[in-house]
Amino acid sequence: MQRPLIxxxxxxxxxxxxxxxxxxxxxxxxxxxVVAPDSPQSGKGHAITIDDPIRFHAIxxxxxxxxxxxxxxxxxxxxxxxxxxxxxxxxxxxxxxxxHGSNAAINIIYSGTLSAAMExxxxxxxxxxxxxxxxxxSADFEPAKPYIKHLMSYILENGLEHxxxxxxxxxxxxxxxxxxxxxxxxxDARWVEEFQEALDPRGQKYYWLTGKFVNEDEGDDTDxxxxxxxxxxxxxxxxxxxxxxxxxxxxxVEAVTIES
Amino acid sequence: MQRPLIxxxxxxxxxxxxxxxxxxxxxxxxxxxVVAPDSPQSGKGHAITIDDPIRFHAIxxxxxxxxxxxxxxxxxxxxxxxxxxxxxxxxxxxxxxxxHGSNAAINIIYSGTLSAAMExxxxxxxxxxxxxxxxxxSADFEPAKPYIKHLMSYILENGLEHxxxxxxxxxxxxxxxxxxxxxxxxxDARWVEEFQEALDPRGQKYYWLTGKFVNEDEGDDTDxxxxxxxxxxxxxxxxxxxxxxxxxxxxxVEAVTIES
Lengths: 260, 260
Known about the structure:
2 copies of one chain form a homodimer.
Chain A: E1 5-9, H1 17-29, E2 31-37, E3 56-59, E4 66-70, H2 74-86, E5 93-100, H3 107-110, H4 112-122, E6 127-132, H5 145-158, E7 164-170, E8 181-183, E9 189-199, E10 205-215, H6 223-228, E11 232-238, H7 244-250
Parallel strand pairs in A: 1-2, 1-5, 2-4, 5-6, 6-7, 8-11
Antiparallel strand pairs in A: 3-4, 7-11, 9-10
């Protein structure tokens, strides 16, 4: 039997420990190809590079694994992987991460990790974005590995609806404290932000974004609830942003004659 | 009666004709504040600037209108507007655009214009992203203005569900050929892409993204259908990416005991 082809990417860059952990799991399940950004790309959302050229080259930091570093965003990496690196070879699965830090709730729309997974899903490749709730480079990815392997095996076997992806967040806990997997919806949580103001050496003002994550969603069926209760959250996600519930009420806006 | 406060932004940059057209409509309806990127930011999606400082300064290219130019992405512009420029003044409406080019269908997730509108919606500000299907800087925004005014008035009067925004796309047609407004869903269309390969003066390869928009969604209730049939498309949109239909079938993934 042919081994499945697994495309691995991330947004923390090719040198981040998180992607190394993901490659270690992926190579137990299939043939792996890595196309990752050559610099940290956190918070890049679904950005693509339109007005600049993109460059990429082979790297050998993953041992025997075929791997490339790309100058673009995480979404660019997936596009370069599909159109330039893989061409006629279609991956059976794309995994992105393991991100250093949470991508639960609203973080999915800011996250390069999840945007890369979404881009793969748009190309009909089942995909999963993995994140560990520990921002540090010394984060311990070991407790998460059996769960990551289980989810990758499950999707390789069962597939995912066209255009779907999974947003998987993992609490930063010892293995014995993780209660298991919880399939859930995206919490309606948000960032309460401010900007730190400072002066540069020439006396000009500049601003740094800073903020605090706040969950006002009291549901016990959300990813934030699952994580707070020591579960790994699994949110089936998609790219259709239509607010279907609003379609009917909004219809009245059509029924107006406008004079030029 | 106090005039409403309208925040205007875009992704083509403060000097683009599209934002000037939008400001002209907005100032008929309320007090206007502009916070726009200082450079073109097309394709930036929901990117935010985390690892660099952000700068902004007042500009006077909109006559009497209070206006600022910001070094960040469109989403950064909305955050700077809220936290640094407006502070306690909460806008009654945020409008983004008028984008030079379509943001129908899947373009919503790549679009800086729509991401700025979505960021405002996350802050509880009703918001609308406007796009004209003409990429040129000499595009004619006049035929669209009465419709844009109508939609802005409607939302100022009726509000929008918390977390919702409108994605409005306008065909590039003379006024008399526009059939009206159509409330619809996001078409399941996509980009078929490739990369142009070339050599730089030092003999190094580089790649430019290029692509063709393809609609395989045959529904007559989509934004692409509306635009193809000379309507202005109005898609109520939101930030919840949960694929609710997939929640139940995926539940079985939870029911596995994993050995460490």
